[in-house]
Specification:
The chain is of the alpha/beta class. It has 8 helices and 17 strands. Strands 3, 4, 5, 6, 11, 12, 13, 14 and 15 form a 9-stranded mixed beta sheet that branches. Strands 1, 2, 7, 8, 9, 10, 16 and 17 form an 8-stranded mixed beta sheet that branches.
């Protein structure tokens, strides 16, 4: 078993670090999915002088260590969104998630991004006698907006996923995408250069003054600086959530067929849920975890208590399947207490963080880019308490 991230992007060439002083209108600090997509949308909205800097290489943080399961629900169930904001405002947030989801698909297609893209159905699964109400309530909430969504019970479950582990399942059609997240983000960053965005890697912002950002070898004069550093954000509003992933050897065609997992992303509805999918080359990927750690917490890679849970999960869900685990690693990402992203303005500096899922990262990045371009959005009302 290799204690390292499975994702690779062989064709990618790391860009040089910044060596000379430069000026820009927008300086984006952070080369994860939020920063890269924000740069893309700013350029698309007409911004001409955008610079993105990343202290290591693009997608070297939470983004490149993620599972590549892009789903509408993310860290928040729809029933919780409605509970927090009411049906009408919850519908608007759900609509925004849909648009973020659509934006990712359109961007991948338009820019011809190689990222192992696959459309997926999602299955939200409830354990016997443990989460019946949660699953049924989630189905009722989703059914208000999604006509195709189904509640599966008994043999209906076996037709979709060959396991006896669950007794209630919400089946949502085309609510998921599977990607290689490293390829996705690094290859989008390559498309940025065709739009005039300058990207510098291995460029750490060490100090920021009124309108000057210092790096080890040069200064950047900016009009606006946007912090897109997520879990590394210094604000106490953004928590550092750790999770762990395993990837097995490639399954045989017979093994794939025996699971019913092809073309589906599944996750259980327990606290610190586990999620499962097949990669493009038919490896089984399983993720688990959700412990809040201090921002200076030493990263144990992998987190062994999580790894133990993951090793036990595969024989529970598929008792006849016993594939060797080839890769395992841990990562962390930023969330807020309520799992909704924050966008904060402080003079000429802006922070965007805490989205929790990559779909919401893209949605929030598009909203911020449009706001900076002077566009109005139905999300202005949603974010009114997040903007200052």
């Amino acid at each position: 078993m290799k204690y390292k991230v499975f994702w690779k992007n062989p064709g990618y060439k790391v860009r040089p670090s910044l060596k000379k002083d430069i000026e820009c209108d927008y300086l984006i600090v952070g080369g994860g999915i939020t920063g890269v997509s924000l740069a893309y949308f700013l350029a698309k909205d007409g911004a001409k002088n955008v610079i993105l800097v990343e202290k290591e290489k693009i997608a070297s943080g939470a983004t490149g260590r993620a599972a590549g399961t892009l789903v509408l629900k993310g860290e928040l169930d729809l029933k919780d969104i409605i509970k927090d904001y009411g049906k009408e405002k919850g519908r608007l947030y759900w609509k925004a998630n849909h648009e973020g989801f659509k934006l990712i698909k359109e961007l991948i297609k338009k820019e011809k991004i190689d990222c192992d893209f696959e459309k997926m159905h999602t299955l939200y699964c409830g354990y016997k006698n443990k989460t019946y109400n949660d699953v049924v309530e989630e189905y009722k909430a989703e059914k208000q907006f999604e006509k195709k969504t189904k509640l599966l019970v008994g043999n209906e479950i076996k037709k979709e996923i060959n396991t006896n582990m669950f007794d209630k399942v919400v089946l949502s059609y085309d609510h998921g995408i599977s990607v290689n997240p490293l390829k996705l983000t690094q290859n989008i960053s390559m498309a940025l250069e065709n739009k005039g965005v300058k990207v510098y890697e291995n460029t750490h912002v060490t100090k920021v003054g009124k309108n000057i950002a210092k790096t080890p070898h040069a200064k950047i004069k900016f009009k606006k600086l946007i912090w897109a550093i997520d879990s590394a954000h210094p604000s106490e509003k953004v928590k550092n959530l750790k999770s762990t992933i395993i990837v097995t050897r490639p399954l045989t065609n017979k093994e794939v067929e025996s699971t019913g997992l092809k073309g589906k992303i599944i996750w259980d509805s327990k606290e610190n849920y586990k999620y499962t999918k097949l990669t493009k080359d038919n490896r089984m990927l399983v993720g688990f975890g959700g412990i809040i750690v201090h921002k200076k917490h030493r990263i144990y890679d992998p987190h062994f208590p999580h790894l133990k849970e993951l090793k036990n999960f595969i024989p529970k869900i598929f008792p006849r399947l016993n594939p060797d685990i080839e890769y395992t690693w841990s990562g962390s990402f930023g969330i807020t207490d309520d799992y909704y992203p924050i966008i904060e303005f402080k003079k000429n500096q802006i922070s965007i963080a805490g989205a929790g899922s990559q779909v919401v990262c893209v949605m929030a990045a598009k909203y911020l880019a449009d706001k900076l371009a002077g566009k109005k959005s139905y999300l202005d009302n949603f974010f009114k308490n997040k903007l200052s």
